[in-house]
Structure of Transcription termination/antitermination protein NusA:
Amino acid sequence: MENLALIESFSEFKDDKLIDRVTLMAILEDVFRNALKKKFGSDENFDIIINPDKGDMEIWRRRVIVADEDLDLENEEITLTEARKIEPDFEIGEEVSEEVKLIDLGRRAILALRQNLISKIHEHDNTNLYKQFKDLIGDIYTAEVHHVRPRVVILVDDEGNEIVLPKEKQIPSDFFRKGDNVRGIIENVELKGNKPQIIMSRTSEKFLEKLFEQEIPEVFDGLIMVKNVVRIPGEKAKVAVDSYDDRIDPVGACVGMKGSRIHGIVRELGNENIDVINYTTNTNLYITRALSPAKVSSIKIDEENKRAEVFLKLEEVSKAIGRGGHNIKLAGLLTGYELDVIREGNIAEEEDDVELTEFSDEIEEWVIEEFAKIGLDTARSILKQDVEDLVRRTDLEEETILDVMRILKEEFNS
């Protein structure tokens, strides 16, 4: 009963750690064998019998009977005198089995056993946790904010598992409070010592792809395929979609009536602007679609160097480049080509045009850079724009834009 009581004491970990009894017994045997090795030098002549149904166990030590004067290995041999105290008719050469009570190992040994058991169970839990989340890499996962730190947000799921959301994996506009539910993808599982660290990401292209699967039934059912996703997290994204069924409009199905389907995804990503385009193997057409909303005049492709010269009318250049250069950058990433914008326009006007940098004595450098971000780097390219449109696409005030236009107009009117 002493062994049984000890086993029941150890078995409290089964309930705490949600570990099944059979696994617990296997861990127990390993722990006890280590204890026997420490005390007796070897566990090879010990039999450990575990009954997982009753939670009981027995430990038996086998020793060979030798003459009293021939005793050499105390763990493996027993003298004839000692053996006959157990059974009077024992003879030299026979094997004796004796039960070892755990309590006989001593209080300190039992405390060490308990500590070793805790360590082994944690190791078992960590191995299972690592395997569990390795299988979830690339999947959307939801967890609750437990603690917000400057460089990382610590999340906890329903099972109490800790998940890490680093600052660089957060969308720039993300703001979390304790208790908030956060969605992201499991991006990686790293072993820190023996403990797995689960990394979540909200900036990965895979997160946007999985949101399409989750929010758009046709994507989930495989009727629409997401062919490629590129993002500047929190700013802009482009998603190429395709369908084998000509009756399905993949872009229309993803966007929904008045943007109803994609609205939830946009909101989840901090109002990230998402362009959904039809995928095609026609490179010219694919690049044209990727540069939307700009209207492309023509394209000259260099397949060997994966470059493309894109010819656009002057008024389309800023649309192709986009705010901060985001549109052309994402179009290049989506198509796999380095895109060079070539302006088309009135030759006389182009020859008469003036680089915006020439006005650096009258226009501040940061203002010139702000126009350059959206592809406007000459005087005439700015004068052709609508003031309200420039206010929307730059970080400039209307007053500043009007002042710049006044300076530029004076150049051509003088």
